Amino acid sequence: MPLFAQFSHASPFMSSRLPKILLVDDTVANLQLVSDCLIKAGFNVLAVKSGVQALKTLAITLPDLILLDVVMPKMDGFEVCRRLKSQEKTKDIPVIFMTAVADRANPSYKIKGLNLGAVDYISKPIQLEEILARVKTHLKLRALTQQLTEQNTCLQQEIRVHHQTQQILQETERRWRSLLENVQLMVVGLDWKGDVEYMNPFGLGLTGYTQEEVLGKNWFNTFIPSSEQQQLKQIFHELLYHNSHTYYQHFILTKSGEERLIAWNNSVLRDITGAIAGTMSIGEDITQRQAIERMKNEFISLVSHELRTPLTSMRGALGLLKMGVYDNQPEKAKRMLEIAAGDCDRLGRLVNDILSLERLDSGQVTLVKELCDVTDLIQHSVEAIEAIADAALISIRVTPLSAKVYVAPDTIIQTLTNLLSNAIKFSDSNTTITVSVQHQSDSILFQVTDQGRGIPPEHLERIFGRFQQVDVSDSRQKGGTGLGLAICRSIIQQHGGKIWAESTLGSGSTFYFTLPANKASVP
Predict the structure, then answer these.
(1) Number of C-alpha atoms within 13 angstroms, CB side, residue 105?
(2) pTM of whole model > 0.85?
(3) How distant is the alpha carbon of residue 474 from its chain centre?
(4) pLDDT per residue over 132-148, tens digit each?
């Protein structure tokens, strides 16, 4: 069997191409002898006679191994080796030095070559069998080294990919945990029996429980009102085994016993074998939204009713005039026009008050605050209402106070004017309305007191709501819209104050409101 065939069979790491050997020797006889031997053994041989030619050849092609004579003119083998090992593309090519016995006898000479990066020495005179054996050995070693290098590179790459995958998984888990822990939604994980395995901080805060108090507790027995437990257990079973009811809403019980309405999105969880493990549910507390929706519907109903009332009256009066019913009764016709005009005015006031209140409640009105003198605010309000008070034979007495408040002045004047106007409407002639102010610990207290008919106790809080009047006939008889006190409350609340009323039937009422005090003005 040819030598190369033996070599190729013993080295599966080599490619099917002929291994390329670069032979460098300034002795032509050596070149010819070694070249013939290597070619017969199945190698591809490039033979050059100097170190300079060797470097030029290496710039064009890269051999698998170099046989390099040491002693050569112009550039010896040591210099050639040094240059090869200094370049990235040639530093890993195995170099075997060929040297005379006299040179090799000097140990430092051999050490120098090895220190430069050579892998072996062959002594001269050359023994062809030795050359073939050493060439085959170092080619095998290089093939194994390359394989190990490639395997190590692949392993390092796999390690990097694994490390990156671990980092990605850890970052993904961190993000999900951060999302679950910071989202303003209730997140609850249940096992297949309905026991709590997880509840996020928002859910704990909403229910008032600690984590230790909820983990392992049965969700239905602990957090669901008794009247709904059986139905929700059935829904849970159908969710697990039929993937139905992925969205539903129901009430839950907090630790304090309060019921909160939660809208849920539910997902079934499975383990790595595909078996049902439980559920993960994300819930939104819609208790307040439902209350607001109910209030909105009530408000729309009230507004539509209040708008229809003057419109119906106007249409009736104008319809009678249009049909000519009062063509020959000018006084009654005039009265119909007065009714229509009055209802038209009331409708305008009603629309304006509704818009004002909506702008206040929605935050569309920007309160431009400034430092105001309390006495000046009261004086402006009294001047605005004085003519109406005089016409009703009602006097207004003011108890002044030296104090300042940081407010939007027009809105506070509007509040005082509304309170004074109400006091005048519901007071008898020849009575007195008193406006007074006093210091409190951190606020200024305003009081408007009348001597009118008073307010029943059950109406004292309701009168600050929209369209809430003590007597439904007041809107027609007194010209009000039922929104004045609601506007007052919104204004005072936006200033950080409070408003309320006290009353005794038959003796009169007192309306109070507070505004934050300007500390510099408090004695």
Answers:
(1) 3
(2) no
(3) 51
(4) 998 998 999 888 888 88
